[in-house]
Amino acid sequence: MSLNSTPSSDRVHISFFGRRNAGKSSVVNAVTGQNLAIVSDVAGTTTDPVLKAMELLPLGPVVIIDTPGIDDEGELGALRVKRSYQMLNKTDVAVLVIDSKKGFTNEDTLLLEKIKAKNIPYIVVYNKNDLLEVSSLSENEISVSALTGNGIYELKELIAKQAGTNKPEKHIVSDMLDAGDHVVLVVPIDSAAPKGRLILPQQQTIRDIIDNHSFCTVVQPSELAAVLSSMQKKPKMVITDSQAFKEVSAIVPDDITLTSFSILFANYKGNLRLAVSGVTALDTLQDGDTILMSEGCTHHRQCDDIGTVKIPRLIKKYSGKNVNFEWTSGTEFSENLRKYKMVIHCGGCMLNEREMQYRLKCAEDEGIPITNYGTAIAHMNGILFRSLAPFPELQKFLKQKK
């Protein structure tokens, strides 16, 4: 996949924080080589987080986040500060910009404590070294001048180092395939499907397969049986959209591995075990329980939307209980999960791994079961064990839970 086509969810998220007029936006512009952020002597010019997907050498594809000042004042200012702190949940590398002339303040110290508590790699940048040079710097501190460009090259190198460019590459499904393996992808095209395109998880899975020199066939559920019967050699795997699980499972022979995009992406984001563990909460639902349905994107909902219509309908039928539902989408995620019996999250394809892990940790810390769409659908259709075939250790875990 080229750098330009890398989805935002797979890019390193680099967030710039600092007090108003510390020169944070000027540092952002100097690092990116673009007028990404509006610069002004007026305090509080940045009023909302600004996100920009781009390439940053020597790191590669990134998302740059310029945040409002962490010392903003008044009722509106407090909301802006809250938005800045929320950006920590999706931050892979935090850059805290300090005005060299003013030094550390209480706001800077509090933010740095939060960054450390979340185990986020960070850099402290002392800006305006054209006015005052800062000495005795630690290995994750640097002195720069956004005005003259002094130290900006070294800052970019330090960001790349903190981002961990040597992290092992993750795969959606190709690490389960050999070159030349054939995979069948089942993609329902219904009223809820986006017009004229495939959704992101489907696109990414196709790319991951062909990058591995494997090949794939993409079909709708109604054509699946005919495609399988026409193959001289059975496919290595069938991957289906979660909502077609039951129909597809009845068609695919037991000797062919069957799973879903949602389950693969739960593993890709590093949370499949938690999803498998949390899904059994569906078996203990009672009248009046409330389930939080959470999505990572803000797509336009159709009349038969999976998160607001199909899954709630399936849950009520499966449990036979009068269950209540609440919904969040996009960057929204409830700060109080204790009122919920469980959380059912989408596959998280639009969220980067750190934000998805943050949401999972919130639920885990509160003792609230959390699972995802695909795992829940497979469980309610009685085919979860089969859909975990690519993950035998989780099949064993599921048996032990029962």
Short account of what is shown:
By secondary structure, this protein is of the alpha/beta class.
Q: Could you name the CATH homologous superfamily of the largest domain?
A: P-loop containing nucleotide triphosphate hydrolases
CATH fold-type name of the largest domain:
Rossmann fold
Query: How can the largest sheet be summarized?
Result: 6 strands, mixed
The computed structural class is: alpha/beta
Give the N-to-C terminal Cα separation. 41 Å
Q: Write down the secondary-structure element order.
A: EHEEHEHEEHEHEHEHEHHEHEEHEHHH
CATH class of the largest domain: Alpha Beta
Roughly what percent helix?
25-40%
Integer-rounded radius of gyration:
24 Å
**Domains, number:** 3
CATH architecture of the largest domain: 3-Layer(aba) Sandwich
How much of the sequence lies in strands comes to 15-25%
Mean pLDDT: 87
Q: Note the quaternary state here.
A: single chain
Discrete helix count: 14
Lateral arrangement of strands in the main beta sheet = 2-3-1-4-5-6
Number of strands: 14
What are the segments in which pLDDT stays under 50 over at least 5 consecutive residues? 40-45
Net shape: globular
Give a description of the structure.
With about 400 residues, this protein is an alpha/beta fold. It folds into three domains: about 5-165, P-loop containing nucleotide triphosphate hydrolases (Rossmann fold, 3-Layer(aba) Sandwich); about 175-265, Rossmann fold (3-Layer(aba) Sandwich); about 270-400, Rossmann fold (3-Layer(aba) Sandwich). The chain is built from 14 helices and 14 strands. The protein has helices at about 25-30, 75-85, 105-115, 150-165, 200-210, 220-230, 245-250, 260-270, 270-280, 305-320, 355-365, 375-380, 385, 390-400, and strands at about 10-20, 50-55, 60-65, 95-100, 120-125, 140-145, 180-185, 215-220, 235-240, 255-260, 290-295, 325-330, 340-345, 370. The protein is globular.
